[in-house]
Amino acid sequence: MEYKTIKIKREGVSSLNNFLREVFGSFPKSDMYFEVEQNALLLYLRQLNMVDFRKRVQAFIAGTDYQLAREILQEVLHKIESIGSYGLKGRKRLFVGYNRERKVRDRQRKEIERGDYFYASDNDFSPLNNELPMEFANRIIVGDSEEVLKKFPDNCVDLIFTSPPYNFGLDYESHKDGIEWEKYFDKLFAILKECIRVLKYGGRIVINVQPLFSDYIPIHHIISNFFMQNKLIWKGEIIWEKHNYNCKYTAWGSWKSPSNPYLKYTWEFLEVFCKGSLKHEGDPRNADISGEEFKKWVYAKWEIPPERDMEKYGHPAMFPKELAERVIKLFSYKGDVVLDPFNGVGTTTAVAKRLGRIYIGIDISEEYCRKAEERVRMTPQENPLFENV
Ligand SMILES: C[S@@+](CC[C@H](N)C(=O)[O-])C[C@H]1O[C@@H](n2cnc3c(N)ncnc32)[C@H](O)[C@@H]1O
Q1: 144-162: per-residue pLDDT in tens?
Q2: Domain shared by 85 and 162, yes or no
Q3: E runs forming strands in 90-191
Q4: Measured from the CB, is residue 165 less than 6 Å from ligand 1?
Q5: Is the beta carbon of 167 within 6 A of some atom in ligand 1?
């Protein structure tokens, strides 16, 4: 039978053999038993009702004046209580075998049989990457991204971070937000197709999406589906928790009734996709994410308050600088090319410049681009990599 072993080293423990038999002897061997070595107590655990066990051990601690016995029993309790992984069966904690059915045997062979990211494995992306032509480096470009990007060569951008218009009916300066869904997706996909083409092999596209919950349009799923059909690999999804409690309980649904409860969301999504490979090549010396940041940010729920300066910039749908900073540092190296094809007033480009990336921002609004230029100009670069950037 399999047991979990606990060892408590203490000189003189062998003198407590009879006392310990009294304490633990009433538990069936199929739950636990003990052995005493010269200077150690060994406990073998399979399962225990912790309430009964604790009561019994505490009663013995209270009932003896022998200091060594009290200390050892206290340590026994402490060690067993601090076992973090166990299963539960009825009122007993199971210390062994509780996760047996969840373990996958021969995992590697099964992964090979299943096939990795099957929806993207037959892509025909070229692994040859191109230099970004200098005329596009560190530029804010006014225009329709579909047209502008057509001038770019294939495979020349390391990271695309963007949030497209969501067709909510917002008051943008030049773009009409709130058109037929089919037309909206046709245009969005035409731009995203260009994005995929200009993305390097091993490059990433991170797209921030807020679904239109009130219309039951899961835009984040529709976009993800588009990327998968176009053979990108889904790397994951980040929840951007904004704690934005601005929606009333009964605004759209029922109250205290299952007839039509309306689900509320205080967060948005970031869908992360890769072209050709999950691995992005780069010089490790150009990684600028700290250990602390990495540890925190790979947990894919990011609590970041929404942008507060939208009025100041005169833009209705900005994301905060911290969101851009995390994406850029987690998914790109210093010196990489970072593109935002819906750049608005330039959050991505300002942060990319500050972090020593080569930035490109495209927006259809001349006014937003002017503000983005100004923002980039006012943003100093930290740790410049290139003298002339
Ligand atoms: C959600 S906003 C992006 C805001 C940006 N993340 C920021 O923080 O400022 C979407 C932007 O897409 C722009 N846009 C809409 N259609 C476009 C197109 N065809 N080409 C380029 N930009 C477009 C809009 O003008 C708007 O500024």
Answers
A1: 999 999 999 999 999 999 9
A2: no
A3: 92-94, 139-142, 157-162
A4: yes
A5: no
Do the domain assignments include residue 87? yes
Residues 80 and 187 occupy one common structural domain: no
Q: What is the rounded radius of gyration, in angstroms, for the C-alpha atoms of the chain?
A: 30
> Could you tell me if 252 and 200 lie in one domain?
yes
Residue 271's domain comprises 134-378
Q: Are residues 198 and 90 in the same domain?
A: no
Given a contact cutoff of 8 angstroms between Cβ atoms, the answer to whether 239 and 222 are in contact is no
Question: Tens digits of per-residue pLDDT, 181-227?
Answer: 899 999 999 999 999 999 999 999 999 998 887 788 899 999 999 99
> How much is the pTM?
0.75
Q: Are residues 240 and 350 in the same domain?
A: yes
Pairing of strands 233-241, 301-303: parallel
Choose one of 57, 86, 102: the last residue of a domain: 102
Number of domains in the chain: 2
251 with 202, same domain?
Answer: yes
Q: Give CA–CA dist 323/297, Å, rounded.
A: 11
Q: Quick check: CB of 344 below 6 Å from ligand 1? A: yes
For residue 387, the model assigns a pLDDT of: 43
For residue 318, give the ligand 1 atom closest to its CA.
8
In this structure, the residue with its CA closest to atom 3 of ligand 1 is: 344
Contacts of 347 (CB under 8 A, 6+ apart): 307, 318, 319, 320, 321, 323, 324, 340
Which of 151, 219, 310, 342 to probe ligand 1 with, by most ligand atoms within 8 A of CB?
342
Instruction: Give the atom of ligand 1 at the shortest distance from the alpha carbon of 162.
Output: 6
Ligand 1 pocket mutation pick from 311, 349, 364 by most atoms within 8 angstroms of CB: 364
Say if ligand 1 is within 6 A of residue 44 CB: no
Q: What's the pLDDT tens digit per position in 286-297? A: 999 999 999 999
Ligand 1 center to 355 CA (angstroms):
22
